[in-house]
Design a protein that fits this description.
The complex is a heterodimer of chains A (about 110) and B (about 120).
Chain A (H helix, E strand, L loop, with lengths): L2 E5 L2 E5 L4 E8 L5 E7 L4 E7 L6 E3 L2 E6 L4 E6 L8 E10 L4 E4 L3 E6 L1
Parallel strand pairs in A: 2-11
Antiparallel strand pairs in A: 1-3, 3-8, 4-5, 4-9, 6-7, 7-8, 9-10, 9-11
Chain B lengths: L4 E3 L2 E4 L5 E6 L6 E7 L5 E8 L2 E4 L8 E4 L6 E5 L8 E8 L9 E2 L3 E5 L1
Parallel strand pairs in B: 2-11
Antiparallel strand pairs in B: 1-3, 3-8, 4-5, 4-9, 5-6, 7-8, 9-10, 9-11
The chains are: A mainly beta (about 110), B mainly beta (about 120).
Chain lengths: ~110, ~120
C-alpha cells in the first residue's frame, strides 16, 4: 500500500530556532514530492522536488529529496511565529492518473 | 486571476440530506482534484477529473459520493444521504497539466458539518 509518513506529528519551538521536518514514502512509480503549508484553510505550495540531492530554497525555507532513502526534509531557519502551521508532504506517484498521497502533516507551533 | 474558488465555505446538513460542493478551477486549468480532510488527519485523495471525464475515482467511497466536471460550470462533489462521518473539510485543487506532477492550487475548502 502506498504511504507517506511525516514526522514529528507536532513540534513546539521558540522564535529563532531551526526546525527540520521529515517526510518518508513508500510508493510505486514515484514522480515527485511536494511540500505545502496549511494555515487556517487551503494548503499553499512551497516546493516540488523531483531530483535527488538538489536543494530547493525560498528565504528561510529549504528542502531536499533523497531518493535512495525515500525521504525528504524541510528545513526552516530562524523561525517566526508566522511559520506556525501544518506542513504537508505529498507524493505524486502516477502522473497519468494524477494520483498523490498526502502525509498527515507536522503541526509546527512557534512561540514568541 | 481569482484562484480556485470553492463554495459554500461552510455547509450544515442534517443526516439523510444531500450535500453539493462546488469548485471552480483557476482560469486555464482543466484538471481538478478533490480531497477530504478529517480532523487531525492529512488530505486524502478522492477523485481526479478533467472536463467531462473522471480520470481516477479510486479514493471515492463506493456509495453516496459522486463527482462531475461538466463542459461548462464548476466541478461538483455530491454526497447523498449524508451521515455524521461525512463531516470534514473538502478541498479542491486544480492544475494546468495532466496529473498532479506540478504545483496544484487549492481552494479554501468547504467545511461540511452533518448534524
Amino acid at each position: 500500500e502506498d504511504k507517506v509518513v511525516q514526522s514529528p506529528l507536532s513540534l513546539v519551538v521558540h522564535e529563532g530556532d531551526t526546525v527540520t521536518l521529515n517526510c518518508s514514502y513508500e510508493v510505486t512509480n514515484f514522480r515527485s514530492l511536494l511540500w505545502y503549508k496549511q494555515e487556517k484553510k487551503a494548503p499553499t505550495f512551497l516546493f516540488m522536488l523531483t531530483s535527488s540531492g538538489i536543494e530547493k530554497k525560498s528565504g528561510r525555507l529549504s528542502s531536499i529529496l533523497d531518493k535512495k532513502e525515500l525521504s525528504s526534509i524541510l528545513n526552516i531557519t530562524a523561525t517566526q511565529t508566522g511559520d506556525s502551521a501544518i506542513y504537508l508532504c505529498a507524493v505524486v506517484y502516477d502522473t497519468n492518473a494524477g494520483k498523490s498521497t498526502f502525509g498527515d502533516g507536522t503541526t509546527l507551533t512557534v512561540k514568541p | 486571476n481569482a484562484g480556485v474558488m470553492q463554495n459554500p465555505r461552510h455547509l450544515v446538513r442534517r443526516r439523510g440530506q444531500e450535500a453539493r460542493l462546488r469548485c471552480s478551477p483557476m482560469k486555464g486549468h482543466s484538471h481538478v482534484y478533490w480531497y477530504r480532510q478529517l480532523p487531525e488527519e492529512g488530505l486524502k485523495f478522492m477523485v481526479y477529473l478533467q472536463k467531462e471525464n473522471i480520470i481516477d475515482e479510486s479514493g471515492m467511497p463506493k456509495e453516496r459520493f459522486s463527482a462531475e466536471f461538466p463542459k461548462e460550470g464548476p466541478s461538483i462533489l455530491r454526497i447523498q444521504q449524508v451521515v455524521r462521518g461525512d463531516s470534514a473539510a473538502y478541498f479542491c485543487a486544480s492544475s494546468p497539466l495532466r496529473g498532479m506532477n506540478t504545483e496544484a492550487f487549492f481552494g479554501q475548502g468547504t467545511r461540511l458539518t452533518v448534524v
